[in-house]
Amino acid sequence: MSEEQFSFFEAENSPRQVDFHANRQTGLDRLAAFAPYTGKAYATRRNFDFGSRDRSNISALSPWIRHRLINEEEVLHAVLKQHSFKASEKFIQEIFWRSYFKGWLEQRPEVWLWYRNDLQISLAQLEKDKNLNSRYTDAILGKTGIDAFDFWARELVETGYLHNHARMWFASIWIFTLKLPWVLGADFFYRHLMDGDPASNTCSWRWVAGLHTKGKNYVATASNIEQFTNGRFSAEMYLNKNPVPFDEDREAKIIPMPINGKISNEPYILLLTEEDCLPETLIQTDSPAAIAGVLLTNERSPLEIGGKAKSFAKVAIKDALRRGENQFGCEARLLESVEWKDQLLDLAKSHNVSIIITAYAPVGPVAEQLQSIKEPLSKNGIELSQIIRNYDAMTWPHATKGFFKLKKQMPDFIQALGLA
After folding, report:
1. Is domain 269-387 annotated with CATH 3.30.450.20?
2. Which CATH fold topology does 3-106 show?
3. What is the pTM of this model?
4. CA dihedral 398, 400, 401, 402 (to 10 degrees)
5. d(Cα 330, Cα 353) in Å, to the nearest integer?
6. Class of domain 109-228
7. Coil, helix or strand for 245?
8. How do residues 195-224 score in pLDDT, each as one tens digit?
9. 119-133 confidence digits (pLDDT tens)
10. Which one-letter DSSP state was computed for residue 273?
Protein backbone atom coordinates (compact mmCIF):
# COMPACT_ATOMS: atom_id res chain seq x y z
CA MET A 1 0.00 0.00 0.00
CA SER A 2 1.48 3.36 -0.99
CA GLU A 3 1.53 6.31 1.35
CA GLU A 4 -0.72 8.27 -1.02
CA GLN A 5 -3.43 5.61 -0.66
CA PHE A 6 -3.21 5.63 3.09
CA SER A 7 -5.52 8.00 4.94
CA PHE A 8 -5.65 9.18 8.51
CA PHE A 9 -8.81 7.19 9.18
CA GLU A 10 -7.38 3.89 7.98
CA ALA A 11 -5.27 3.89 11.13
CA GLU A 12 -8.45 2.85 12.92
CA ASN A 13 -7.75 -0.64 11.54
CA SER A 14 -4.49 -0.79 13.49
CA PRO A 15 -4.61 -3.34 16.32
CA ARG A 16 -5.81 -1.66 19.50
CA GLN A 17 -4.85 -4.23 22.10
CA VAL A 18 -1.25 -5.19 22.80
CA ASP A 19 -0.29 -8.65 24.04
CA PHE A 20 2.79 -7.93 26.15
CA HIS A 21 3.94 -11.54 26.21
CA ALA A 22 7.71 -11.52 26.52
CA ASN A 23 8.74 -13.81 23.71
CA ARG A 24 10.31 -13.09 20.35
CA GLN A 25 7.40 -14.33 18.27
CA THR A 26 4.89 -12.05 19.98
CA GLY A 27 7.21 -9.10 19.34
CA LEU A 28 7.54 -10.05 15.68
CA ASP A 29 3.76 -10.41 15.39
CA ARG A 30 3.21 -6.95 16.88
CA LEU A 31 5.83 -5.50 14.53
CA ALA A 32 4.17 -7.08 11.49
CA ALA A 33 0.73 -5.87 12.59
CA PHE A 34 1.81 -2.27 13.18
CA ALA A 35 4.37 -1.75 10.39
CA PRO A 36 1.70 -0.69 7.84
CA TYR A 37 0.72 2.19 10.16
CA THR A 38 4.20 3.65 10.72
CA GLY A 39 3.87 6.30 8.01
CA LYS A 40 1.43 9.20 7.87
CA ALA A 41 -0.96 7.61 10.38
CA TYR A 42 1.76 7.37 13.02
CA ALA A 43 3.05 10.90 12.41
CA THR A 44 -0.48 12.30 12.72
CA ARG A 45 -1.70 10.32 15.74
CA ARG A 46 1.37 9.33 17.73
CA ASN A 47 1.02 12.01 20.44
CA PHE A 48 -2.48 10.92 21.48
CA ASP A 49 -2.82 8.77 24.57
CA PHE A 50 -6.11 6.90 24.21
CA GLY A 51 -5.44 4.68 27.24
CA SER A 52 -4.25 1.12 27.71
CA ARG A 53 -7.24 -0.36 25.85
CA ASP A 54 -6.42 1.49 22.64
CA ARG A 55 -2.80 1.50 21.43
CA SER A 56 -3.79 1.63 17.77
CA ASN A 57 -1.71 4.79 17.18
CA ILE A 58 1.61 3.57 18.63
CA SER A 59 3.69 0.45 18.15
CA ALA A 60 4.26 -0.35 21.87
CA LEU A 61 7.30 -2.35 20.70
CA SER A 62 9.67 -0.87 23.27
CA PRO A 63 9.59 -3.78 25.79
CA TRP A 64 10.72 -6.22 23.07
CA ILE A 65 13.33 -3.84 21.65
CA ARG A 66 14.66 -2.96 25.11
CA HIS A 67 15.35 -6.64 25.83
CA ARG A 68 16.41 -7.23 22.23
CA LEU A 69 13.85 -9.92 21.68
CA ILE A 70 13.62 -8.05 18.40
CA ASN A 71 16.31 -5.61 17.33
CA GLU A 72 16.40 -2.18 15.74
CA GLU A 73 17.48 -3.47 12.33
CA GLU A 74 14.46 -5.77 12.15
CA VAL A 75 12.14 -2.90 13.01
CA LEU A 76 13.70 -0.61 10.40
CA HIS A 77 13.48 -3.35 7.80
CA ALA A 78 9.77 -3.96 8.48
CA VAL A 79 8.97 -0.24 8.38
CA LEU A 80 10.90 0.49 5.18
CA LYS A 81 9.22 -2.42 3.42
CA GLN A 82 5.93 -0.57 3.94
CA HIS A 83 6.91 3.09 3.55
CA SER A 84 9.57 5.39 2.15
CA PHE A 85 12.09 6.92 4.52
CA LYS A 86 10.39 10.31 4.20
CA ALA A 87 6.94 8.93 4.96
CA SER A 88 8.10 6.96 8.01
CA GLU A 89 10.75 9.40 9.29
CA LYS A 90 8.87 10.27 12.50
CA PHE A 91 8.70 6.62 13.48
CA ILE A 92 12.32 5.98 12.44
CA GLN A 93 13.43 8.89 14.61
CA GLU A 94 11.98 7.15 17.66
CA ILE A 95 14.14 4.09 16.96
CA PHE A 96 17.26 6.22 16.76
CA TRP A 97 16.36 8.20 19.87
CA ARG A 98 16.93 4.99 21.83
CA SER A 99 20.31 4.54 20.13
CA TYR A 100 21.19 8.17 20.84
CA PHE A 101 20.48 7.91 24.58
CA LYS A 102 22.46 4.68 24.85
CA GLY A 103 25.43 6.13 22.98
CA TRP A 104 25.27 9.39 24.93
CA LEU A 105 25.33 7.65 28.32
CA GLU A 106 27.95 5.15 27.16
CA GLN A 107 30.31 8.05 26.59
CA ARG A 108 29.32 9.75 29.89
CA PRO A 109 29.03 6.96 32.47
CA GLU A 110 29.50 9.50 35.27
CA VAL A 111 25.92 10.64 34.68
CA TRP A 112 24.68 7.16 35.61
CA LEU A 113 26.83 7.19 38.75
CA TRP A 114 25.44 10.61 39.69
CA TYR A 115 21.92 9.26 39.31
CA ARG A 116 22.65 6.20 41.46
CA ASN A 117 24.32 8.31 44.16
CA ASP A 118 21.62 11.01 44.14
CA LEU A 119 18.97 8.31 44.40
CA GLN A 120 20.59 6.96 47.56
CA ILE A 121 20.63 10.48 49.01
CA SER A 122 16.96 11.04 48.16
CA LEU A 123 15.95 7.66 49.61
CA ALA A 124 17.75 8.59 52.82
CA GLN A 125 15.86 11.90 52.86
CA LEU A 126 12.58 9.99 52.67
CA GLU A 127 13.50 8.29 55.92
CA LYS A 128 14.13 11.61 57.68
CA ASP A 129 11.59 13.97 56.13
CA LYS A 130 8.00 12.95 56.96
CA ASN A 131 6.51 15.61 54.68
CA LEU A 132 8.60 14.51 51.71
CA ASN A 133 7.80 10.88 52.44
CA SER A 134 4.07 11.63 52.57
CA ARG A 135 4.10 13.57 49.28
CA TYR A 136 6.20 10.86 47.60
CA THR A 137 3.86 8.11 48.83
CA ASP A 138 0.81 10.00 47.56
CA ALA A 139 2.51 10.35 44.16
CA ILE A 140 3.39 6.69 43.65
CA LEU A 141 -0.02 5.55 44.94
CA GLY A 142 -1.86 8.00 42.68
CA LYS A 143 -3.36 10.07 45.50
CA THR A 144 -2.21 13.60 44.66
CA GLY A 145 -5.59 14.92 43.53
CA ILE A 146 -4.29 15.60 40.01
CA ASP A 147 -6.56 13.22 38.13
CA ALA A 148 -4.39 12.58 35.07
CA PHE A 149 -1.22 12.11 37.11
CA ASP A 150 -2.94 9.79 39.57
CA PHE A 151 -4.39 7.72 36.74
CA TRP A 152 -0.94 7.28 35.13
CA ALA A 153 0.69 6.35 38.45
CA ARG A 154 -1.81 3.52 38.88
CA GLU A 155 -1.66 2.55 35.20
CA LEU A 156 2.13 2.24 35.36
CA VAL A 157 2.07 -0.09 38.37
CA GLU A 158 -0.82 -2.16 37.03
CA THR A 159 0.31 -2.54 33.41
CA GLY A 160 4.07 -1.88 33.37
CA TYR A 161 3.64 0.52 30.47
CA LEU A 162 2.80 4.17 29.71
CA HIS A 163 2.41 6.09 26.46
CA ASN A 164 5.51 8.20 25.79
CA HIS A 165 3.57 11.47 25.94
CA ALA A 166 2.09 10.44 29.29
CA ARG A 167 5.61 9.74 30.56
CA MET A 168 6.65 13.29 29.68
CA TRP A 169 3.57 14.84 31.31
CA PHE A 170 4.00 12.66 34.38
CA ALA A 171 7.68 13.54 34.81
CA SER A 172 7.00 17.26 34.36
CA ILE A 173 4.22 17.23 36.97
CA TRP A 174 6.38 15.17 39.35
CA ILE A 175 9.30 17.60 39.08
CA PHE A 176 7.71 21.03 38.70
CA THR A 177 4.23 20.84 40.24
CA LEU A 178 4.70 18.27 42.99
CA LYS A 179 8.33 19.38 43.45
CA LEU A 180 9.62 15.89 44.18
CA PRO A 181 13.24 14.85 43.51
CA TRP A 182 13.50 13.81 39.86
CA VAL A 183 15.67 10.81 40.71
CA LEU A 184 12.83 9.33 42.79
CA GLY A 185 10.51 9.66 39.79
CA ALA A 186 13.08 8.11 37.48
CA ASP A 187 13.46 5.24 39.95
CA PHE A 188 9.67 4.78 40.08
CA PHE A 189 9.60 4.45 36.29
CA TYR A 190 12.65 2.22 36.15
CA ARG A 191 11.22 -0.15 38.73
CA HIS A 192 7.88 -0.59 36.97
CA LEU A 193 8.33 -0.13 33.22
CA MET A 194 8.64 -3.34 31.20
CA ASP A 195 10.85 -1.33 28.86
CA GLY A 196 12.79 0.25 31.74
CA ASP A 197 16.17 1.13 30.27
CA PRO A 198 19.04 2.84 32.14
CA ALA A 199 19.92 5.23 29.31
CA SER A 200 16.47 6.13 27.97
CA ASN A 201 14.94 6.47 31.42
CA THR A 202 17.74 8.48 33.04
CA CYS A 203 18.31 10.78 30.08
CA SER A 204 14.59 11.36 29.50
CA TRP A 205 14.00 12.44 33.09
CA ARG A 206 17.06 14.69 32.90
CA TRP A 207 15.69 16.16 29.66
CA VAL A 208 12.32 16.96 31.23
CA ALA A 209 14.09 18.63 34.19
CA GLY A 210 16.30 20.75 31.90
CA LEU A 211 19.56 18.96 32.68
CA HIS A 212 20.10 17.09 29.41
CA THR A 213 19.65 20.05 27.09
CA LYS A 214 20.90 22.93 29.23
CA GLY A 215 18.21 25.48 29.98
CA LYS A 216 15.46 23.60 28.15
CA ASN A 217 12.86 21.77 30.21
CA TYR A 218 9.54 20.17 29.32
CA VAL A 219 6.45 21.85 30.74
CA ALA A 220 3.19 19.91 30.98
CA THR A 221 0.05 22.00 30.51
CA ALA A 222 -3.51 21.06 31.37
CA SER A 223 -4.81 22.08 27.95
CA ASN A 224 -2.24 19.92 26.18
CA ILE A 225 -3.14 16.94 28.36
CA GLU A 226 -6.85 17.44 27.70
CA GLN A 227 -6.28 17.69 23.93
CA PHE A 228 -4.00 14.71 23.52
CA THR A 229 -5.92 12.41 25.84
CA ASN A 230 -9.02 13.04 23.74
CA GLY A 231 -10.73 14.80 26.64
CA ARG A 232 -10.23 11.95 29.10
CA PHE A 233 -8.84 14.44 31.63
CA SER A 234 -10.04 17.92 32.52
CA ALA A 235 -8.08 21.07 31.73
CA GLU A 236 -9.12 22.41 35.15
CA MET A 237 -6.20 20.78 36.96
CA TYR A 238 -3.60 23.10 38.47
CA LEU A 239 -0.09 22.70 37.07
CA ASN A 240 3.00 24.89 37.40
CA LYS A 241 3.01 26.79 34.10
CA ASN A 242 6.33 28.62 34.40
CA PRO A 243 8.88 26.32 36.04
CA VAL A 244 12.56 27.17 35.92
CA PRO A 245 14.81 24.55 34.26
CA PHE A 246 17.16 22.71 36.58
CA ASP A 247 20.90 23.31 36.47
CA GLU A 248 23.92 21.48 37.83
CA ASP A 249 27.47 22.59 38.52
CA ARG A 250 29.13 19.48 37.16
CA GLU A 251 30.10 18.33 33.70
CA ALA A 252 30.49 14.67 32.84
CA LYS A 253 33.75 13.62 31.24
CA ILE A 254 33.44 12.10 27.78
CA ILE A 255 35.25 8.78 27.56
CA PRO A 256 36.22 6.72 24.49
CA MET A 257 33.81 4.16 23.10
CA PRO A 258 34.27 0.60 24.45
CA ILE A 259 36.49 -1.87 22.63
CA ASN A 260 34.75 -4.86 21.11
CA GLY A 261 35.37 -8.24 22.70
CA LYS A 262 37.03 -11.07 20.87
CA ILE A 263 35.32 -14.05 19.32
CA SER A 264 37.20 -17.29 19.83
CA ASN A 265 37.03 -20.58 17.96
CA GLU A 266 37.72 -22.33 21.24
CA PRO A 267 34.86 -23.88 23.24
CA TYR A 268 32.96 -21.18 25.13
CA ILE A 269 29.97 -20.50 27.36
CA LEU A 270 27.35 -18.13 25.95
CA LEU A 271 25.95 -15.89 28.69
CA LEU A 272 22.56 -14.24 28.15
CA THR A 273 21.31 -11.23 30.10
CA GLU A 274 18.13 -9.16 29.84
CA GLU A 275 20.08 -6.60 27.80
CA ASP A 276 20.18 -8.91 24.79
CA CYS A 277 17.87 -11.89 24.27
CA LEU A 278 18.88 -12.70 20.68
CA PRO A 279 21.48 -15.47 20.95
CA GLU A 280 20.82 -16.60 17.36
CA THR A 281 22.41 -13.51 15.80
CA LEU A 282 25.06 -12.45 18.31
CA ILE A 283 28.02 -14.35 16.90
CA GLN A 284 28.71 -16.46 13.83
CA THR A 285 31.05 -19.14 15.12
CA ASP A 286 30.98 -22.72 16.38
CA SER A 287 28.23 -23.65 18.79
CA PRO A 288 28.78 -22.91 22.49
CA ALA A 289 29.53 -25.69 24.94
CA ALA A 290 26.60 -24.44 27.03
CA ILE A 291 24.31 -21.45 27.39
CA ALA A 292 23.60 -19.71 30.68
CA GLY A 293 21.07 -16.98 31.45
CA VAL A 294 21.04 -14.61 34.40
CA LEU A 295 18.22 -12.37 35.55
CA LEU A 296 19.47 -9.11 37.10
CA THR A 297 16.27 -7.05 37.19
CA ASN A 298 16.51 -6.64 40.98
CA GLU A 299 19.68 -4.58 40.47
CA ARG A 300 17.61 -1.74 38.98
CA SER A 301 16.88 -0.22 42.38
CA PRO A 302 17.27 -0.64 46.14
CA LEU A 303 13.44 -0.64 46.24
CA GLU A 304 11.11 -3.43 45.15
CA ILE A 305 10.87 -4.02 41.42
CA GLY A 306 7.41 -3.98 39.88
CA GLY A 307 5.83 -7.32 39.06
CA LYS A 308 5.25 -6.53 35.38
CA ALA A 309 8.84 -5.44 34.79
CA LYS A 310 10.28 -8.43 36.64
CA SER A 311 7.99 -10.90 34.90
CA PHE A 312 8.69 -9.55 31.40
CA ALA A 313 12.45 -9.81 31.89
CA LYS A 314 12.23 -13.33 33.32
CA VAL A 315 10.03 -14.66 30.53
CA ALA A 316 12.28 -12.93 27.96
CA ILE A 317 15.38 -14.67 29.32
CA LYS A 318 13.63 -18.03 29.39
CA ASP A 319 12.47 -17.55 25.81
CA ALA A 320 16.03 -16.66 24.76
CA LEU A 321 17.40 -19.76 26.49
CA ARG A 322 14.85 -21.97 24.77
CA ARG A 323 15.65 -20.51 21.35
CA GLY A 324 19.38 -20.76 22.02
CA GLU A 325 19.04 -24.39 23.02
CA ASN A 326 17.11 -25.13 19.82
CA GLN A 327 19.56 -23.16 17.68
CA PHE A 328 22.80 -24.61 19.05
CA GLY A 329 21.68 -27.98 20.41
CA CYS A 330 23.42 -27.59 23.77
CA GLU A 331 22.50 -27.28 27.42
CA ALA A 332 20.79 -24.00 28.35
CA ARG A 333 20.00 -23.07 31.94
CA LEU A 334 18.86 -20.10 34.00
CA LEU A 335 21.25 -19.36 36.86
CA GLU A 336 19.95 -18.48 40.31
CA SER A 337 20.11 -14.71 40.70
CA VAL A 338 21.72 -14.76 44.16
CA GLU A 339 24.44 -17.33 43.38
CA TRP A 340 24.79 -16.74 39.65
CA LYS A 341 28.47 -15.80 39.76
CA ASP A 342 29.50 -19.02 41.49
CA GLN A 343 27.23 -21.07 39.24
CA LEU A 344 28.65 -19.47 36.10
CA LEU A 345 32.19 -20.19 37.23
CA ASP A 346 31.29 -23.81 38.03
CA LEU A 347 29.63 -24.18 34.62
CA ALA A 348 32.73 -22.87 32.85
CA LYS A 349 34.96 -25.23 34.81
CA SER A 350 32.73 -28.23 34.17
CA HIS A 351 32.99 -27.63 30.40
CA ASN A 352 36.69 -26.80 30.62
CA VAL A 353 36.34 -23.48 28.76
CA SER A 354 38.59 -20.45 29.04
CA ILE A 355 36.20 -17.88 27.61
CA ILE A 356 32.64 -16.74 28.27
CA ILE A 357 30.99 -14.70 25.52
CA THR A 358 28.10 -12.32 26.12
CA ALA A 359 26.46 -9.38 24.39
CA TYR A 360 27.94 -6.05 25.45
CA ALA A 361 25.85 -4.54 28.24
CA PRO A 362 25.53 -0.74 28.00
CA VAL A 363 25.96 1.47 31.06
CA GLY A 364 23.62 0.31 33.80
CA PRO A 365 23.18 -2.37 36.48
CA VAL A 366 23.83 -5.34 34.17
CA ALA A 367 27.11 -3.77 33.06
CA GLU A 368 28.03 -3.23 36.71
CA GLN A 369 27.36 -6.88 37.52
CA LEU A 370 29.36 -8.13 34.56
CA GLN A 371 32.25 -5.90 35.58
CA SER A 372 32.16 -7.37 39.09
CA ILE A 373 32.64 -10.94 37.82
CA LYS A 374 35.60 -10.25 35.54
CA GLU A 375 38.23 -10.52 38.27
CA PRO A 376 36.94 -13.81 39.79
CA LEU A 377 36.80 -15.32 36.31
CA SER A 378 40.26 -14.05 35.42
CA LYS A 379 41.74 -15.59 38.56
CA ASN A 380 40.46 -18.92 37.27
CA GLY A 381 41.91 -18.41 33.80
CA ILE A 382 38.57 -17.48 32.22
CA GLU A 383 37.99 -14.38 30.08
CA LEU A 384 34.69 -12.54 29.79
CA SER A 385 34.33 -11.26 26.22
CA GLN A 386 31.57 -8.72 25.51
CA ILE A 387 30.50 -8.48 21.87
CA ILE A 388 29.20 -5.13 20.57
CA ARG A 389 26.60 -5.49 17.86
CA ASN A 390 27.38 -3.72 14.58
CA TYR A 391 24.30 -1.50 14.89
CA ASP A 392 25.49 -0.15 18.25
CA ALA A 393 29.06 0.29 17.06
CA MET A 394 27.73 2.28 14.10
CA THR A 395 25.29 4.58 15.94
CA TRP A 396 26.67 5.20 19.42
CA PRO A 397 29.76 7.24 18.43
CA HIS A 398 27.47 9.89 16.90
CA ALA A 399 25.80 10.64 20.25
CA THR A 400 28.39 13.23 21.25
CA LYS A 401 26.07 16.22 21.72
CA GLY A 402 22.37 16.63 20.95
CA PHE A 403 20.17 14.26 18.96
CA PHE A 404 20.34 16.41 15.82
CA LYS A 405 23.87 15.26 14.98
CA LEU A 406 22.83 11.62 15.04
CA LYS A 407 19.55 12.40 13.29
CA LYS A 408 21.41 13.78 10.26
CA GLN A 409 23.14 10.43 9.91
CA MET A 410 19.94 8.35 9.76
CA PRO A 411 19.93 8.00 5.93
CA ASP A 412 23.58 6.93 6.05
CA PHE A 413 22.85 4.36 8.75
CA ILE A 414 19.99 2.93 6.72
CA GLN A 415 22.24 2.79 3.63
CA ALA A 416 24.98 1.04 5.61
CA LEU A 417 22.44 -1.52 6.87
CA GLY A 418 21.39 -2.27 3.30
CA LEU A 419 17.85 -1.03 3.90
CA ALA A 420 17.77 1.99 1.58
Report:
1. no
2. 1.25.40
3. 0.95
4. 30
5. 14
6. mainly alpha
7. coil
8. 999 999 999 999 999 999 999 999 999 999
9. 999 999 999 999 999
10. B
